[in-house]
Write a structure and sequence with these properties.
Blueprint (H helix, E strand, L loop, with lengths): L15 H13 L4 H9 L2 H15 L3 H14 L2 H7 L10 H18 L17 E2 L7 H7 L2 H5 L2 E2 L9
Parallel strand pairs: 1-2
Helix pairs in contact: 1-2, 3-4, 3-5, 4-6
Length: about 160
């Protein structure tokens, strides 16, 4: 997570007992009270999701950023998955990358048995099929073995969330 200059303040009213409990929990976590409360309120998986997606948009070869996103989504619990992918990507992506990210999210949500976020439905599937290889001899295999969220988006690959080729 990048460091940003803090220019705003938030005050909340708590009882002395609540303040003491927050202070103790923060101390156990090795954090100051502000960092502890922010860590509890702001979803760390959500920030990581946005960072990984931003990497897809900026890297010359998005393959590594997609692999990092794959790893992140593979490790999330159902609650973390819902929080992480609730907001759409905050960067502009090519149609291929937008569909790939949406397919990863849809596959991950299915794996975790959580609802797919509505923003994925706004991404129009690719008009032309995109294959994970240039080898013509593998295309039939990819057509029949790609995970459903990828096939629905006209992307044909041989691995999905949590898997590597």
């Amino acid at each position: 997570m990048g460091r940003h200059t803090k220019k705003a303040q938030l005050q909340i009213r708590v009882t002395k007992a609540e303040k003491a409990a927050i202070h103790q929990a923060a101390a156990r976590a090795g954090m100051d009270m502000s960092a502890y409360v922010l860590g509890r309120v702001l979803s760390i998986p959500s920030v990581r999701f946005q960072e990984c997606v931003a990497g897809c948009a900026t890297e010359a070869s998005s393959r590594f950023a997609l692999a990092e996103l794959n790893s992140l989504l593979s490790e999330l619990t159902p609650g973390e998955m819902s929080n992480a992918v609730a907001s759409p990507p905050s960067v502009a992506l090519t149609p291929f990358l937008a569909n790939y990210v949406a397919a990863l999210v849809e596959y991950g949500c299915s794996r975790c048995s959580v609802p797919t976020p509505p923003w994925t439905r706004s991404i129009i599937p690719l008009e032309e099929p995109a294959f994970g290889t240039t080898l013509q001899s593998l295309r039939l295999h990819l057509l029949t073995h790609s995970p459903p969220p990828f096939r629905l988006r006209n992307i044909f690959i041989d691995s999905s969330l949590g898997q590597r080729v």
